[in-house]
Design goal:
- This protein has 123 residues and is an all-beta fold.
- Helices cover 0% and strands 48% of the residues.
- The protein has no helices and eleven strands.
- Strand 5 and strand 6 form a beta hairpin.
Protein backbone atom coordinates (compact mmCIF):
# COMPACT_ATOMS: atom_id res chain seq x y z
CA UNK A 1 0.00 0.00 0.00
CA UNK A 2 1.30 3.41 -0.97
CA UNK A 3 1.63 5.94 1.81
CA UNK A 4 2.92 9.49 1.52
CA UNK A 5 3.83 11.53 4.59
CA UNK A 6 4.67 15.22 4.34
CA UNK A 7 6.71 17.14 6.88
CA UNK A 8 8.47 20.46 7.30
CA UNK A 9 5.68 22.99 7.02
CA UNK A 10 5.44 25.95 9.34
CA UNK A 11 5.27 29.70 9.70
CA UNK A 12 7.70 31.99 7.90
CA UNK A 13 7.87 35.68 7.12
CA UNK A 14 7.48 36.97 3.59
CA UNK A 15 10.76 36.75 1.73
CA UNK A 16 11.89 33.80 3.80
CA UNK A 17 12.53 30.18 2.90
CA UNK A 18 11.06 26.86 3.89
CA UNK A 19 11.55 23.27 2.81
CA UNK A 20 8.95 20.53 2.89
CA UNK A 21 9.55 16.83 2.43
CA UNK A 22 7.46 13.83 1.49
CA UNK A 23 8.49 10.34 2.54
CA UNK A 24 6.95 7.59 0.44
CA UNK A 25 6.43 3.99 1.42
CA UNK A 26 6.55 2.77 -2.17
CA UNK A 27 8.70 -0.28 -2.98
CA UNK A 28 9.22 1.01 -6.51
CA UNK A 29 9.48 4.72 -5.73
CA UNK A 30 11.62 5.37 -8.80
CA UNK A 31 8.67 4.23 -10.94
CA UNK A 32 6.46 7.10 -9.79
CA UNK A 33 6.27 10.66 -10.98
CA UNK A 34 6.04 12.84 -7.89
CA UNK A 35 4.34 16.18 -7.56
CA UNK A 36 3.42 18.91 -5.11
CA UNK A 37 0.04 20.59 -5.02
CA UNK A 38 -1.33 23.18 -2.66
CA UNK A 39 -4.73 24.29 -1.50
CA UNK A 40 -5.52 27.62 0.12
CA UNK A 41 -8.73 28.16 2.12
CA UNK A 42 -11.70 28.54 -0.18
CA UNK A 43 -9.69 27.70 -3.29
CA UNK A 44 -9.23 24.67 -5.49
CA UNK A 45 -6.18 22.47 -5.16
CA UNK A 46 -3.54 23.70 -7.59
CA UNK A 47 -0.43 22.25 -9.17
CA UNK A 48 2.88 23.52 -7.84
CA UNK A 49 5.66 21.31 -9.21
CA UNK A 50 6.43 17.83 -10.49
CA UNK A 51 9.53 15.74 -11.06
CA UNK A 52 10.19 12.84 -13.39
CA UNK A 53 11.13 9.32 -12.37
CA UNK A 54 14.88 9.87 -12.21
CA UNK A 55 14.69 13.57 -11.38
CA UNK A 56 16.00 14.61 -14.74
CA UNK A 57 12.98 16.71 -15.61
CA UNK A 58 11.09 19.17 -13.45
CA UNK A 59 7.94 21.19 -14.05
CA UNK A 60 6.62 24.25 -12.26
CA UNK A 61 3.56 26.40 -12.09
CA UNK A 62 4.26 29.88 -13.38
CA UNK A 63 3.45 31.32 -9.96
CA UNK A 64 6.40 29.54 -8.33
CA UNK A 65 8.89 29.28 -11.18
CA UNK A 66 12.27 30.66 -10.15
CA UNK A 67 11.38 30.55 -6.44
CA UNK A 68 10.60 26.88 -5.74
CA UNK A 69 12.74 23.82 -6.47
CA UNK A 70 11.51 20.25 -6.50
CA UNK A 71 13.95 17.38 -6.07
CA UNK A 72 13.91 13.73 -5.16
CA UNK A 73 16.20 11.15 -3.62
CA UNK A 74 15.28 7.71 -4.88
CA UNK A 75 17.60 6.06 -2.36
CA UNK A 76 15.54 7.60 0.45
CA UNK A 77 12.11 7.39 -1.22
CA UNK A 78 11.71 11.10 -0.57
CA UNK A 79 10.69 14.14 -2.59
CA UNK A 80 11.46 17.68 -1.51
CA UNK A 81 10.18 21.15 -2.22
CA UNK A 82 12.51 24.03 -1.43
CA UNK A 83 10.60 27.30 -1.29
CA UNK A 84 12.44 30.62 -1.43
CA UNK A 85 11.27 34.21 -1.59
CA UNK A 86 7.98 33.17 -0.08
CA UNK A 87 4.95 35.41 -0.44
CA UNK A 88 1.76 35.59 1.62
CA UNK A 89 -0.13 34.15 -1.36
CA UNK A 90 1.95 30.98 -1.01
CA UNK A 91 0.06 30.24 2.20
CA UNK A 92 -1.69 26.89 1.80
CA UNK A 93 -1.72 23.26 2.75
CA UNK A 94 0.92 21.55 0.63
CA UNK A 95 0.29 18.01 -0.55
CA UNK A 96 2.58 15.55 -2.27
CA UNK A 97 1.14 13.19 -4.83
CA UNK A 98 2.30 10.22 -6.87
CA UNK A 99 1.34 8.65 -10.17
CA UNK A 100 2.91 5.94 -12.28
CA UNK A 101 2.82 7.71 -15.63
CA UNK A 102 4.14 11.02 -16.85
CA UNK A 103 3.42 14.19 -14.93
CA UNK A 104 0.12 16.00 -14.99
CA UNK A 105 -0.99 19.36 -13.65
CA UNK A 106 -4.43 17.96 -12.83
CA UNK A 107 -4.98 16.74 -9.29
CA UNK A 108 -7.47 14.07 -10.43
CA UNK A 109 -4.66 12.38 -12.38
CA UNK A 110 -2.85 11.41 -9.19
CA UNK A 111 -3.97 8.34 -7.31
CA UNK A 112 -1.87 8.70 -4.17
CA UNK A 113 -1.84 11.62 -1.77
CA UNK A 114 -0.30 12.60 1.51
CA UNK A 115 -2.22 14.21 4.36
CA UNK A 116 -0.74 17.66 3.70
CA UNK A 117 1.41 20.07 5.66
CA UNK A 118 0.52 23.68 6.43
CA UNK A 119 2.72 26.48 5.14
CA UNK A 120 1.88 29.96 6.38
CA UNK A 121 3.66 33.07 5.11
CA UNK A 122 3.13 36.22 7.14
CA UNK A 123 3.37 39.67 5.62
Amino acid sequence: QVQLVESGGGLVQAGGSLSVSCAASIPTFSSYTMAWFRQAPGKDREFVAAISLNGGSTYYADSVKGRFTISRDNTKNTVYLQMNSLKPEDTAVYYCAARRTSYSTYSFAYGYWGQGTQVTVSS
